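Deviation from plan, reported transparently: iron/sulfur cluster complex.
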Amino acid sequence: MSTQERETIELNLYQAHKKIYPREVKGRFQFKRKLAVVVLLGLFYLVPWLQMGGEQAILFDLPNRRFHILGLILWPQDFIFLALLLIIAAFSLFFFTALAGRLWCGYACPQTVWTEVFIWMEQLTEGGRNQRMKLDQAPWTWNKFRKKTSKQILWVTFALWTGFTFVGFFTPIRELANHIWIWQLGPWEMFWLFFYSFATYGNAGFLREQVCLYMCPYARFQSAMFDKDSLIISYDEQRGEPRMRGKKRRTENNPGDCIDCTLCVQVCPTGIDIRDGLQYECIACAACIDACDEVMEKSGMPKGLIRYTTEHSLSGKPSRILRPRVILYALVLFGLITGFVTAFMMRSPISINVLHDRNTFYRMVDSNTIENVYTLKIMNKGRETAQYQLSASGLPELSVVTDVDSDMLQAEPGQLISVPIKIRAPKKIANQRIHNILLSVMSGQHKNSEEVKYFGYKK
Ligand code: SF4
Ligand code: SF4
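Because the crystal trials were delayed, the predicted structure below was used instead.
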């Protein structure tokens, strides 16, 4: 290689992002996706406005450390339920991915759902795919300025409304609306409102498929949940190839069913060609299925050249729905949901914590009686003020004594009280070094108990 040649070689390590202009498409799967968008976004925007018992039905009240969920109040002590819910959500994702591929990406992921709406606004203001491409290449004119400005107004308004709704899940939304009206937003409200609006605008308006391609961790690890029986969207190569178009198609013998119209590529929101095989960039939106089905119908060929299928089915082998991994995920999911429901039903509005006095194991009350001293903490997780009664069991003739007045054994909703108590027992009965006894706290029909150590009188 000469010196001159060496100087002219350019090694481009950075590939500039090419804007994707997805073509609008209609069909049975796009109808289902639009339905999913309407239902999911409808829920997101409406739910914070729902009231139950005079309170916001769903409110994650972080300043007061309580979650209102359809009339229930969850406290920090109920964190286990939130953790369980997240684990259930993760296993549901594993289960549905193993069974039906990237169903989540195509139909329910917030990135997909909001991007759909932003693209719809873009089409509304700038027109279809070809018009948008022409508009971007055209010089700035009044018409271009008008269309671009209209799009930005719609995008920004929608993003701000989304930010407002998001904050409305954490601050009572009616109060928040009032604060905005009189422009008296708190610093955190202001920060999260603009932050979430900006995130919506940036992710759904500009980044779009780049979030799926470069930022989403799920896109990277979901292949670990796939096997050859997982549902995928695939091009039927055996049927489609050799692809041909136009005159060549009419003159060649045995052309494949693909007429190489590239519509499946034009409608793809991530800009890939499904005919190149299974790719991690595919978010399973099924737009290529609808586009190709329409082409097949117009060409008088059977639909399904691109379809939902499995790798086994494509290679002529039978597909199995019930596989070990699907059964395993289903069993774990069933166990988790059962555990969650059972624990939730048994959830007590009384939360207790008992600490034994660190300085003395036991004290003599008189020549026949000993006592152990504890600090009892009670949290009222109910919606009403609660009055508590105490009892102990596990040894005969146990008695619970407290020096505080009975109104000290009372707690407002969400209040944590701390009460010093003594549990007394005859020394001839509590005659082992350690006994396990049960301390119970009752309020009305509710009761919660905790096993505690009781130090006895042993010579
Ligand atoms: S839409 Fe169908 S026929 Fe057209 S290029 Fe894609 S696979 Fe081929
Ligand atoms: S290849 Fe088809 S299913 Fe996959 S993202 Fe593109 S249009 Fe959607």
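Residues 16-347 form one domain. We consider this an acceptable substitute for the interim report.
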